[in-house]
Structure formats: structure tokens, C-alpha cells
């Protein structure tokens, strides 16, 4: 399988690692090292190094000389699929929110100690930061990140905050760890978070949670304003109620979408039958 890249930036080691993951399936849920090497077309020492790396990352487990995938593999695809479904539902609601407020709105999800933007409806305003789908910021400096962090259990929160940010911004020293935890406790209790020029001068935002069918906070939605144009009082008094209503509507529709009847079908020579 490996050895088919042609571009100068092609990473053969990454391709081989993905080949190893792709070897497993319903017919081969558990495989020996030799089986994996043969299925992926790799030398046995190479297959061993890749399997041990994947095991250390949590994507593979081994027992009795056999390797199996772990549920963590699902994170490679489910986050993307989930974000797509959420965006399809959220878009008209976010467009309506932007039309009523005249301000940009975004949705983000947590990735380590950062937030990553997965949806955005913007208005043409000069603002200190360029934001687009895939943009990454340290969670503690954003209203969305505070909402997402506040929803984590205590142990998971500690582990998340210990992960170094990959956003490429200077370390934020606006508050002590104790002050951050106190703020997150308040965010959890009141259901929204404010970031007042913490990410960049002139950038002010408020965010609220978006929940899935189980009530779990899976994303955060915000309204972002220019601090010179919109006061905190106006942001909280006028825009926050509209944002809360919009996020509630998105959460409700997403819950309905997740609970929809779903039947897979397969093609059969005699017609289409349930899988």
C-alpha cells in the first residue's frame, strides 16, 4: 500500500501508519504482527514500530500477541462528521442571529487546550483577528473556550489545561490558575462566558453552549464585537439573549437530528434490502 506518494511534501511514514489502521476491519478485527506486515505490504520491523507507536497514542491495543483497534480511532472521523451535521443545522440559525445583531457569530469545539472554529457567519468589519474555519486559539483566552472548559469534569479539566496550546500565540498570563477555576465555576453556573479583550485588543465576545441529544456540551457559539463599538453592557443586555435563544434552537434541532430513525441498506441482486 505504501510507496505511492509523488509530491515533494508526501510523508511516507504517515501514509504507512494510516495503511496499518486500514488493515483492520470486520473480517480482521485482531491481527498478529506478521499479519499486519503482510496486509500493509510492510517489512516486519517497520510494521512493529508503527504498531507500537499507534499503541502508545491509544489507537491500537495488544493482547496475547494480537493487535486490535481501540474506540479512539472513531475520533478521526466522527468529529468531522458531527461537525458537518451540526453546521447544516446551525447555519440558518446563525445567519438569522447575525442579521439581528449585525455582528459576527462563530461556533467552536475543543481540541486539547485550544478551540478550533468549525462554523462561522461573519460581517465585514475591521477587527484585530482573522478568523476562519479551522482557526485555532487558546481556549482560556476565548469566550467559547471558557464555555467548553467549564463543561468538563474536574479531572478532565486539569488534564486539558496541562496540554500545551498549538495555537502559536504567547502564553496568556491574565489570571492565576485559581482565578481561572473560579471563573469557570461561574461560567458553569450562569451558562455563558465573556472574553473582554483577552485574545486581542478590541476583540470582545460572549459565548454559550451548544448541546447534543444527551445534553452534553459539544460546541460553543459566540457573538463577537469590536470593543470600541459595543460595550459589555450592550453585548450582554442585547446580544446575549438572542445568542442564548439561537443556541437553544440549534441544540434542540441537533437533538432531533441525532435521534432520527436510521436504517442502512445494501444492494442485492434482487433489490435493496436492509443491512
Quick recap:
The protein has two domains: 58 residues, Winged helix-like DNA-binding domain superfamily/Winged helix DNA-binding domain (Arc Repressor Mutant, subunit A, Orthogonal Bundle), CATH 1.10.10.10; 183 residues, Beta-Lactamase. The mean pLDDT is 86.
Can you tell me about this structure?
The protein has helices at 12-23, 33-40, 44-57, 75-101, 143-150, 154-161, 177-190, 232-258; strands at residues 30-31, 60-63, 66-69, 104-111, 114-121, 136-138, 193-196, 203-211, 217-226, 265-268, 271-274. With 275 residues, it is of the alpha+beta class. The protein has 2 domains: 12-69, Arc Repressor Mutant, subunit A (Orthogonal Bundle); 76-258, Beta-Lactamase (2-Layer Sandwich). Strand 8 (203-211) and strand 9 (217-226) form a beta hairpin. Helix 1 packs across helix 2 (33-40). The protein starts with 11 loop residues before the first helix and ends with a strand. The model has no long low-confidence stretch (mean pLDDT 86).
